[in-house]
Specification:
This protein has 13 helices and ten strands. With about 400 residues, the protein is of the alpha/beta class. Strand 6, helix 7 and strand 7 form a beta-alpha-beta unit.
């Protein structure tokens, strides 16, 4: 009876209006940067859009869900090889999946991955949550592309172009068209980090537009706006910024601490995120680095101070938050991936990225979320608000 009452309460809450506010060691960071790169401004024909939220679906779109199905709206799965395992189809049909992340080893050709995605979406039509699954990958451009094709230029090449705003718009449009052409609807891009030195964490793969925060802001917002006009959601990453990380400070491998004062974070690293929110970015990925000036105890993506206060309250972000890979070496002090998922959910992260290419990892994470929700370790009101944001995002991306 207790579970039934909780299920009814959450199902009721999830149909209501979503809450608008929930609520990589490094050297000392630089003062606000100047650069020989000129500060860019959006063209009149492509202005930065006003700050917007993910489109809210009509209440009728949101079905009554079980506790497991509500928890499933937080889980992004991954798998190894070219053929999705039966377990993934099962989770989807049950309504216990928000989406799937694809890596290079999942893709042999555009035709092949298009067929896979169509099969997954077909399975989803048998679920209680029939809005499109989130089908995502990292298609940043240049050296970081999971799917063959556009965008061919890296972020750094875009920033160094003679007409960078034009190139950013072209990159965003072509990325969206490429992904949409195979059925993907979310790009885990663009990187909004403001890199510091040649060859550092972001620059070694040319992932950052510039050393100038205003340039990154303008080009990032331009990319986001152009891509989202194609029907593919953009993800700004890695909030509040990994630009100060050196080449060895990779949160995928090791714990990373960035000793940056709040003044630098806000005057440099966070500037592109303000522009991204203003451009209507549908998702923001939060960093796994520790920022002692904001929270001395937990990495950003596990910190309610960073997620809820710095991102949601300070910037008014109403879209969907998404973790970086939960199996990251930077989180080794925080237990299993399932435990990390619970901590991230508690901090206010909406989507949890189980990217070890093993469906069971996501299932275990789902089980842990359900357990924490039923025991009171996660608040049902916050949990249902996150599920509502995810379903709104899914709905906004069409069929």
């Amino acid at each position: 009876m207790r579970r039934n009452r909780m299920r009814a309460r959450i199902a009721c809450m999830i149909t209501a209006t979503a809450a608008t506010s929930m609520s990589c060691g490094g050297t000392a960071g630089p003062t606000p940067l100047s650069s020989s790169t000129a500060t860019l401004r959006p063209s009149a024909s492509h202005p930065v859009a006003p700050r917007t939220a993910v489109t809210r679906p009509a209440a009728a779109v949101v079905p009554k869900l079980s506790t497991r199905q509500i928890a499933g709206q937080r889980v992004v799965y991954s798998y190894r090889g070219r053929t999705p395992p039966a377990a993934l189809f099962t989770q989807i049909r049950r309504g216990e999946a928000a989406g799937v992340m694809f890596f290079k080893d999942n893709i042999s050709s555009r035709t092949q991955i298009r067929k896979v995605i169509a099969q997954l979406q077909k399975a989803n039509k048998q679920s209680p949550v029939r809005t499109p699954l989130l089908m995502m990958t990292d298609q940043e451009g240049g050296l970081v592309r999971r799917l063959p094709g556009a965008p061919l230029l890296s972020a750094k090449q875009v920033g160094a172009a003679s007409h960078p705003v034009t190139e950013a718009r072209r990159a965003g449009t072509s990325a969206g068209q490429n992904l949409r052409g195979v059925g993907m609807n979310v790009n885990l891009a663009p990187v909004l980090d403001v890199y510091r030195t040649a060859g550092d964490f972001d620059d070694q793969y040319q992932r950052s537009f510039s050393r100038n925060q205003n340039t990154v802001a303008t080009l990032g917002a331009t990319f986001i706006t152009a891509q989202q006009r194609t029907g593919v959601a953009a993800t700004g990453k890695h909030f509040p910024g990994l630009g100060a990380a050196d080449a060895k400070q990779n949160t995928d491998k090791v714990p990373v601490t960035l000793h940056l004062p709040v003044s630098t974070l806000r005057a440099v690293d966070e500037v592109p995120y303000k522009a991204a929110v203003g451009a209507g970015a549908k998702l923001i990925m939060v960093s796994w680095a520790l920022y002692p000036a904001l929270d001395p105890h937990r990495p950003a993506g596990l910190s309610s101070t960073v997620v809820q206060k710095e991102l949601r309250q300070r910037f008014g972000f109403r879209g969907v938050t998404i973790t970086d890979a939960l199996e990251a070496g930077g989180l080794r002090a925080f237990g299993s991936t399932s435990r990390r998922g619970v901590l991230a959910a508690g901090a206010g992260m909406d989507l949890l990225l189980y990217s070890a290419e093993n469906v069971n990892e996501g299932i275990n994470g789902l089980n842990a979320l359900v357990s924490a929700l039923r025991s009171g370790g996660l608040k049902s009101a916050d949990f249902s608000a996150s599920a509502q944001r995810v379903i709104a995002l899914r709905t906004s991306l069409g069929s």
